[in-house]
Design brief:
2 copies of one chain form a homodimer. In chain A, strand 3 and strand 4 form a beta hairpin. Chain A starts with 10 loop residues before the first strand and ends with a strand. Chain A is α+β, with helices and mostly antiparallel strands and 136 residues long. A 5-stranded antiparallel sheet of chain A has the order 1-3-4-5-2, covered by helices on one side. At the A-B interface, helix 1, helix 2, helix 4 and strand 2 of A face helix 1, helix 2, helix 4 and strand 2 of B. Strand 2 of chain A pairs antiparallel with strand 2 of chain B.
Chain lengths: 136, 136
Amino acid sequence: MNKIELFNNFEKELKFSVTIEVYNTFQLCSGDKNYLHTDEEFAKAKGFRERVMYGNILNTFLSYSIGMALPTPDVMIQTQDIQYKRPVFLNDELTMNIKVDEIHKSVNVVQFVYKFFNQENKVVAKGHVQIGVFES
Amino acid sequence: MNKIELFNNFEKELKFSVTIEVYNTFQLCSGDKNYLHTDEEFAKAKGFRERVMYGNILNTFLSYSIGMALPTPDVMIQTQDIQYKRPVFLNDELTMNIKVDEIHKSVNVVQFVYKFFNQENKVVAKGHVQIGVFES
């Protein structure tokens, strides 16, 4: 069986916690100390209840989902996009739903749609990711 | 002057080094230990000269660029996309070119196009990012 067959009807839910460790390691990795993410007074002045988490933390979670939670690890991201819909805050508990949208067997490509929900079941972000599958 | 006026004809080049610290902090943040990024023999078996860096490391650099390198820090990412064109390896020295593509003053939105080049001046990734500008 070709590995790409493993993706037929694939759909998965994953849980991610936006912990202080996630926040701190993202900040170290990126060097991004924008006030919106680091200064509670600034964030409040912009209309948020507290510091807003870096949107790209969700892309680190996406990296995990693709790298670690698919039916085969023999994959590589080709393209991805994300739309941020609501702010994410420290200690939010997110649920990601990711499912196959299209499979292109002739070029070993799988396209997914995904959504992140917060603990109130509101969509905080959604997007698409396209991977290549290594058949050998 | 409205802050959005600061983006007229904005274009910038930024340098990013894919250091072992960047790699390690990304791995801690994401929890992604896919073999392509962690196992040299696996990466070689897939046709790469060594471990391939996580594509989403580039999105942490994008977070920096938007958060720290624009004419005002009073911004927030709304949408972004990326296409990966070539693998990035440990210790690559990347140059990012980011420039304004469209400005929509009535809704305080700026759209950028960006490209990442490696030290051989080859495009490794490119995409778009849309931000909202806080006018107050």
